[in-house]
Write a structure and sequence with these properties.
- With about 575 residues, the protein is an alpha+beta fold.
- Among the domains are: about 5-125, no CATH class; about 410-500, no CATH class.
- It is about 15% helix and about 30% strand.
- The protein has nine helices and 25 strands.
- It has helices at about 65-70, 70-90, 95-110, 130-135, 145-150, 210, 325-330, 450-460, 480-495, and strands at about 5-15, 30, 45, 120-125, 140-145, 165-170, 175-180, 185, 195-200, 205, 220-225, 240-245, 255-260, 265-275, 280-290, 295-300, 365, 365-380, 385-395, 410, 430-435, 505, 510-525, 530-550, 560-575.
- It has an eight-stranded antiparallel beta sheet with strand order 13-14-15-18-19-23-24-25, with no helix packed on it. A five-stranded mixed beta sheet has the order 5-11-12-9-10.
- Strand 7 and strand 8 (about 185) form a beta hairpin.
- The radius of gyration is 34 Å and the shape is elongated.
Length: about 575
C-alpha cells in the first residue's frame, strides 16, 4: 500500500548575482519550470519573453489535506507565485529577498517542530550573457533592444553620443578609432589594435574594417569603461564594447520593423525563428537593409563635358579680343573656366580647362548597406548545447565628405593696421599669419564660395575689378574695413562652423565598399564534478575599397584610393566550476 505523498513547497529565488544598474528594456523574465520527483530541484531559464509560466508536469491530484494541514505554507506558495508573475515585468527578484524568504521558511519549520520532509521546487532566474557584464564590471553602460530602436542606432558609433566617456572617431564609414576616458589609439591603419576591445557574441573583432558592423536583431550592447582585468576583454587598457545578438528560443516568432524619412530614406529590420525539431534543433534568421539618397549637394557634380569647357585666359594679355586675367579683374578660381571654385592652371598641353572629372555624383553622404545573420541552436542533451552562426554584410556608399576651410592669409591683431607690414610701413608687429576662412594650398587656392561672398558683403573692397583681380583692400583707406571683415568671418566660422553644411565642392566622391562575412561556433557542456566547459570559435573576413577625398575640396591635395582584404580567427576555451 502506497504511503502518503510528499508535500510540495515552492521557493522563488533570483540569480546568484543580480547585476546592478540594469536598464529598462534588458529585464529578464521567468519561463517554464516543472515539478520533479521528491528531493529534486528544477531550475528555470531566462528568455526574452516576459511571460511567467509555472505548471506541474505531474498529473497526480494534490491531496486536499495538504492545504488544510499547512495553511501557512500555502500562503507562502501563493506569495511565491504572485511574485514570480510580477517579476516578469519589473525584473528579477533581488538576492536579499530570496535569502530573507529562505530564512523565514527555515525559522518557521524549526519553530513548529515539524519534519522538513517536503519536496522543495526551486525556481531560479538565470542571468543572461549580457547581464553578466554588470556583475563583473565597475562602470558599465548598457543598451537594450528597445534603447537601440529608440535611438535609431545603425552601428556602435551612433552610441558614442549617449555613452559617458566614450568617443568613436571615424575617417569614412569603415575606419573607426575608439577612446574611453581619453585612452585609445589614434591610428587608422588596417591592422592596428586599439586599447578598446570590441566583441560580437564573445568573438573578438580586432580588424577596424569589421568593427563598425550593422546593428540588427540585437539583445544588448554593453560599454565597459576602464581597464579589464578578467573575462574575455582582459588586458584591454581602456575598456570594452560587447555586442550580443538574439539567439533561437525554440519557439515560433518574428518581427518586422520599417522606418521612412526624407532623402528617400528606407530602413527595414526583421527576424524570423522556428523550431526545426522540437527540443533539439531551432533556427533564427535576421536581416537589416538601409538605403538613403545623399544629403549633401556637390557643386562639382554633373560637370560639363571636357569639349564644352571654357579655357582659362592668360595671366595678362592686352589684346582686347583676348584679355588676360589681370585685364578682366578675375582669378583662376572664377567662372566660367572654374566649375566649382577649383583653380584652373595653364600648365602642360592645351586646352587649359578644368580637370574636374565628368560624371561625379551631384549628391553625396548617402547610405546603402545590408546585413544578414542565420543562427542554429542544437541541443542534443540537457547538458550540452551548440550555437552555429553564419553572417555577412555589404556596404556600398559614396565617400563621406565634409567642407574645407583654408587658413592661408593674415590679419592685423587688435585692428592695428598701422603696424601690419603694409607697403611703406616699417613695422609688422601686429601681423598674424593664418586666417580661418582664407584660401587653401600654396597658390591661389580654393575658397568656399559662401565665405568669399560674405567677405565681399562686409568689405566691398575685396571684390576684383579690371587691374585688381584680388580687390583693393590694401589701399590705406580700405585696410581697416578689409581687416575687420577677415576677423568677423573667422570668428563666425570658429563659433558656428559651416553656415551651409549641406553644400560642398568635391572632385572625388568615392565609392567606399566593404564586404564582410564570417561564422562562429559556440558550445556549452556540463561536465562531471560541477565543471562547465565553454568553447567559442570564430572566423571573420573582409574585402574593402576606399576612395576618399580627404581635403574635402575641388583641389587634389590629399586623396586616398586603396584596396585591402583580411581575415581573422578567434578561439576561446573556458573551464569553470
Amino acid at each position: 500500500m502506497a504511503g502518503p505523498r510528499p508535500r510540495r513547497r515552492f521557493r522563488v529565488t533570483g540569480p546568484s548575482e543580480q547585476p546592478e544598474g540594469q536598464k529598462d528594456g534588458m529585464t529578464n523574465g521567468f519561463t517554464g519550470f516543472a515539478m520533479g520527483s521528491a528531493g529534486r530541484s528544477v531550475s528555470g531559464s531566462v528568455k526574452d519573453s516576459r511571460e511567467c509560466a509555472a505548471r506541474p508536469r505531474s498529473r497526480d491530484p494534490i491531496e486536499p489535506g495538504l492545504i488544510s494541514d499547512a495553511p501557512r505554507r500555502s500562503s507562502l506558495l501563493l506569495l511565491a507565485f504572485v511574485f514570480a508573475a510580477s517579476s516578469a515585468t519589473v525584473g528579477l527578484p533581488s538576492p536579499s529577498w530570496a535569502q530573507a524568504q529562505e530564512a523565514q521558511e527555515q525559522e518557521s519549520g524549526d519553530s513548529d517542530g515539524t519534519d522538513s520532509g517536503i519536496e522543495e521546487i526551486v525556481v531560479r532566474g538565470e542571468a543572461s550573457a549580457s547581464s553578466e557584464d554588470f556583475a563583473a564590471g565597475d562602470s558599465v553602460t548598457g543598451f537594450g533592444a528597445e534603447d537601440l530602436a529608440a535611438l535609431g542606432a545603425a552601428d556602435i558609433a551612433d552610441l558614442a553620443a549617449f555613452t559617458p566617456n566614450l568617443e568613436i572617431v571615424t575617417s569614412g564609414s569603415t575606419t573607426p578609432t575608439f577612446f574611453i576616458r581619453g585612452v585609445g589609439l589614434n591610428d587608422f591603419n588596417a591592422n592596428s589594435t586599439g586599447a578598446v576591445a570590441v566583441y560580437q557574441d564573445d568573438i573578438a573583432i580586432n580588424a577596424p574594417a569589421l568593427q563598425l558592423s550593422t546593428l540588427f536583431d540585437i539583445e544588448a550592447v554593453n560599454v565597459l569603461r576602464g581597464p579589464q582585468g578578467t573575462g574575455l576583454a582582459r588586458n584591454a587598457s581602456a575598456g570594452a564594447i560587447k555586442i550580443y545578438s538574439r539567439k533561437p528560443t525554440g519557439k515560433f516568432g518574428g518581427f518586422l520593423r520599417s522606418d521612412f524619412g526624407n532623402y528617400d530614406y528606407r530602413d527595414f529590420e526583421g527576424a524570423v525563428e522556428a523550431p526545426i525539431y522540437e527540443d533539439l534543433l531551432a533556427a533564427r534568421f535576421a536581416f537589416r537593409y538601409t538605403d538613403r539618397d545623399g544629403t549633401m549637394k556637390n557643386r562639382c557634380g554633373d560637370a560639363p563635358a571636357f569639349a564644352d569647357r571654357v579655357e582659362v585666359p592668360e595671366t595678362s594679355n592686352t589684346d582686347p579680343d583676348n584679355p588676360g586675367l589681370f585685364q578682366l579683374g578675375k582669378s583662376r578660381t572664377d567662372g566660367p573656366w572654374s566649375i566649382c571654385g577649383e583653380p584652373v592652371e595653364r600648365i602642360g598641353d592645351p586646352p587649359f580647362v578644368s580637370t574636374i572629372p565628368e560624371g561625379l555624383a551631384s549628391r553625396v553622404n548617402d547610405k546603402n548597406n545590408w546585413a544578414a545573420r542565420g543562427t542554429v541552436l542544437f541541443q542534443p542533451t540537457l547538458d550540452m548545447s551548440w550555437l552555429v552562426n553564419g553572417h555577412g554584410s555589404r556596404r556600398d556608399e559614396l565617400t563621406r565628405l565634409g567642407q574645407s576651410y583654408g587658413t592661408k592669409g593674415s590679419f592685423c591683431k587688435d585692428g592695428d593696421v598701422d603696424n601690419c607690414g603694409f607697403p611703406t610701413q616699417d613695422s609688422d608687429s601686429a601681423l598674424v599669419d593664418g586666417l580661418l576662412g582664407g584660401r587653401q594650398g600654396t597658390g591661389i587656392g580654393y575658397q568656399a564660395p559662401e565665405v568669399a561672398k560674405k567677405l565681399i558683403e562686409l568689405a566691398p573692397c575685396k571684390a576684383g575689378f579690371p587691374g585688381k583681380p584680388g580687390g583693393d583692400c590694401r589701399a590705406p583707406a580700405n585696410r581697416k574695413s578689409g581687416n575687420d571683415a577677415d576677423i568677423q568671418v573667422a570668428r563666425g566660422l570658429a563659433r558656428h562652423l559651416d553656415s551651409k553644411p549641406w553644400i560642398g565642392d568635391f572632385n572625388r566622391t568615392g565609392p567606399t565598399t566593404n564586404d564582410t562575412y564570417g561564422t562562429y561556433v559556440k558550445g556549452d557542456m556540463v561536465l562531471p564534478h560541477g565543471l562547465q566547459l565553454t568553447t567559442t570559435t570564430g572566423y571573420d573576413a573582409y574585402d574593402r575599397k576606399i576612395d576618399i577625398d580627404l581635403d574635402f575640396s575641388p583641389e587634389t591635395l590629399f586623396q586616398i584610393l586603396t584596396k585591402d582584404d583580411g581575415w581573422q580567427v578567434a578561439q576561446d576555451l573556458k573551464l569553470q566550476g
